[in-house]
Specification:
- By secondary structure, this protein is of the alpha/beta class.
- It contains five helices and 17 strands.
- The chain has a single domain, classed as Purple Acid Phosphatase, chain A, domain 2 (4-Layer Sandwich).
- It has helices at 38-44, 53-68, 85-88, 91-103, 196-202, and strands at residues 4-8, 11-15, 21-23, 28-31, 72-75, 105-109, 124-126, 128-131, 134-137, 148-150, 155-160, 166-170, 172-174, 178-180, 191-192, 207-212, 215-219.
- The chain has a seven-stranded mixed β-sheet with strand order 1-2-3-4-5-6-7.
- Helix 2 runs parallel beside helix 4.
Length: 227
């Protein structure tokens, strides 16, 4: 099985190195914050970035779908950087996405950046879903009593290596009842998991989950970490 397995809400998941979450019982992949067409959005404002972020993000997504054999993909909001993103996809990226949508069913969860704009490309659009007793939505609800998987906050963690160098890695922000997935998009930034915004959104300070060398690391962000 690809990725590193762990248990959440009595279900087995695997965290893939790319940041996608594999849910074997549902034969499904979960990703958050693809932010497709962020480059073209910035270009319209005069901030020129290489216009290949959507193609790169979709190629990594294609590799994850191929590795897992996923039949469903749940995209947990902000799949596009803005509501005009779907119309700005270049022909190559649009064709790649169309191919992927022939391989597995896409379920687009609406986000604060893209609302329901992805529906024009096909697939299914929802504001939130309950699957296997777990709520899937874009932004965590601190008072939600049910197990929940979301995105929105782009969690990342800074690690101190034995060499003295520091590296930053995208991660899952995890509490016993909530998971916040890392941003999947090539140009998506991140918020340090030690930021108090996570404690506010999740109701308690989370740990960081990340896959490294075939192992699942669980790190309390207030602690100095050496890898």
């Amino acid at each position: 099985m690809p990725g590193v397995a762990f248990s959440f809400s009595r279900e087995t998941f695997s965290l893939l190195p790319c940041g996608a979450l594999w849910w074997p019982a549902q034969v499904a992949l979960l990703v958050a914050d693809l932010h497709l067409e962020k480059g073209s959005s910035f270009a319209r404002k005069g901030w020129l970035l290489p216009p290949y972020d959507s193609q790169d993000t979709l190629e990594r997504l294609a590799a994850a779908i191929a590795a897992t054999g996923a039949r469903t993909l749940f995209a947990l909001g902000d799949s596009f950087h803005d509501t005009g993103g779907p119309k700005r996809l270049c022909d190559v990226a649009a064709a790649r996405l169309a191919d992927l949508m022939q391989i597995c069913a896409f379920v687009w969860i609406t986000g604060n950046h893209d609302d329901d704009s992805a529906h024009q490309l096909g697939g299914r659009t929802e504001t939130e879903l309950e699957i296997g007793g777990i709520i899937l939505r874009h932004e965590a609800e601190p008072l939600e009593p049910r197990p929940e998987i979301s995105g929105h906050f782009h969690p990342k963690i800074s690690l101190a290596l034995r060499t003295g160098r520091r590296v930053t890695r995208r991660c899952i922000a995890a509490t016993p009842r909530k998971l916040v997935l890392p941003a999947y998009g090539a140009y998506a930034g991140g918020l340090d998991i030690a930021d108090r915004a996570f404690g506010t959104a999740l109701g308690e300070a989370p740990d960081a989950l990340l896959a490294a060398s075939g192992k699942l690391l669980r790190i309390a962000p207030q602690m100095e970490t050496r890898a």
